[in-house]
Amino acid sequence: MPSPFPGMNPYLEQNYDWNDFHQTFVTRMRKLLEAQIGVNYFVKIEVRLYIHERSAEERRFFGVADVGLSSKRDRPVGRVDSALTAPIQLQLPAVEIEKQSSLEIRDVRNRQLITAIELLSPSNKDPSGDYETYVAKRRQILNSPTHFVEIDLRRGGQRPTSPKLPKCDYYVLVSRREDRPTVGVWPFGLRDRLPTIPIPLTSPDPPVLLDLKAVLDITYDDANYGKHIYLETPEPPLRPKDEAWARRIAGLDR
């Protein structure tokens, strides 16, 4: 069954499930776009790898130091044991590895990047995370002859600045290179249907339409998220009225 929500499913906004949802959603977008763009283009998944070192507080909590020393000299060792065991044991810094996927539509003939499509992740909206890195990439694309599409399906975090968006839970931004500095914005709320958006190609080819609700429903079914996401709560927490509505939609109050 598809997601029971008309728009974004807030129970997918959990840090535990988000990375898996992000990768699956991007893959399903690629499939739907490839079915429409024709023979002159292809869609490529671009994967970026981010390595986050745990903070000092996190290392203290998990009992992991930046560099730990332990000596084996305080116990007797046999000849074989001493040959196989290093005299000093060190620990590498505790790190967290995050993969972020985005889409690129490229020209078949010359591999030129035509359209970049980004689905924002929590770290893209975290000033202490990859916010500055993402903003720099965003600025570079907007200063190039590439179309740009930005999709934000997370309520939390700090959104990239410029343009200033209206108050909304989620949004999609479409920047056609020939229209800059004007951009199209689709703001929508928790209870609104996910929009269908135009994905620009090279003129005179018309844009293709991407139904984000269809993408989410396919993603939800393929990954069978309904089995487990309702055991947790959305992050950040919903407003009280929205929480009551969401629980009713998800069938949690039966």
Instruction: Write out the strand line-up for the largest beta sheet, numbering strands in chain order.
Output: 1-4-5-6-7-8
Number of helices: 6
The H/E string reads HEHEHEEEHEEEEEHH
Structural class: alpha+beta
The coarse overall form would be globular
User: How many distinct folded domains?
Assistant: 2
In helices, the fraction of residues equals: 25-40%
Which residue ranges are poorly predicted, with pLDDT under 50 across at least 5 consecutive positions? 58-73
Biggest sheet character: 6 strands, mixed
User: Average pLDDT value?
Assistant: 87
Percent strand: 15-25%
Protein described:
This protein has 254 residues and is α+β, with helices and mostly antiparallel strands. The chain folds into two domains: 10-54 and 99-249; 62-93, no CATH class. 26% of the residues lie in helices and 24% in strands. It has a six-stranded mixed beta sheet with strand order 1-4-5-6-7-8, sandwiched between helices. Strands 2-3 form a two-stranded antiparallel sheet. Strands 9-10 form a two-stranded antiparallel sheet. The longest helix is centred in the N-terminal third of the chain and has 20 residues, at 15-34. The protein starts with 14 loop residues before the first helix and ends in a 5-residue tail after the last helix.
